[in-house]
Design brief:
By secondary structure, the protein is an alpha/beta fold. Helix content is 23%, strand content 32%.
Length: 185
């Protein structure tokens, strides 16, 4: 996870993970997850907004029957840290009772939002729930989470790009980079 590419945006301090590294990892994860669910239908749910880009590229690597759905939750506002107070802004449209659910996340930092979401989703009695997250910040985790598939572990820095934002900006950057501190200070 080292990059020699120069950032192409004035607010980016450095590139942590290149577009090519992300694509290669999503291909591996797609194969592993397809093997895990071979012969099963899966409800694959992305947590909006950040995970929509991850899901789009990840989905192209799946070779299983998949129903796609989305949830939108809010726990950040315009802050760089999760408030821990979770609001479901958009719920699943799909009934998950008795079905396999794969949650696709862009990043897990404190884990508080996802922990809340898991409690909510388990109450709906799915056959199974698994989590795939492109990024995990292990030093930030405040709760135990059963993350089955991780793309990359990242340091405790504020990262943007590839769906991740700061104040709704930077989602379209094709890589994961760190913001210059003066941008969010």
């Amino acid at each position: 996870m080292t990059s020699h590419a120069e950032p192409d945006h004035p607010d980016i301090e450095k590139i942590l993970i290149t577009h090519e590294e992300i694509q290669a990892r999503l291909a591996v994860l797609g194969e592993e997850i397809s093997q895990h669910y071979r012969g099963e239908e899966v409800v694959t749910a992305a947590v909006l907004k950040g995970a929509f880009i991850v899901l789009a590229d990840f989905a192209r690597n799946l070779s299983i029957d998949t129903v796609f759905d989305f949830m939108a939750v809010s726990s950040y506002g315009a802050s760089t840290k999760s408030s821990g107070v979770v609001r479901i802004l958009k719920d699943l449209d799909t009934d998950i009772e008795g079905r396999h659910l794969l949650i696709v996340e862009d990043i897990i930092d404190s884990g508080l939002t996802l922990s809340y979401l898991l409690k909510n989703l388990r109450a709906r009695k799915p056959a199974s729930i698994e989590i795939m997250s492109l990024l995990v910040k292990p030093d930030q985790l405040q709760v135990e989470l059963p993350v089955r598939w991780t793309g990359f572990e990242v340091p405790n820095e504020f990262v943007v790009g590839y769906g991740l934002d700061y104040a709704e900006k930077y989602r379209t950057l094709p890589y994961i980079g760190t913001l210059k501190p003066e941008v969010y200070a």
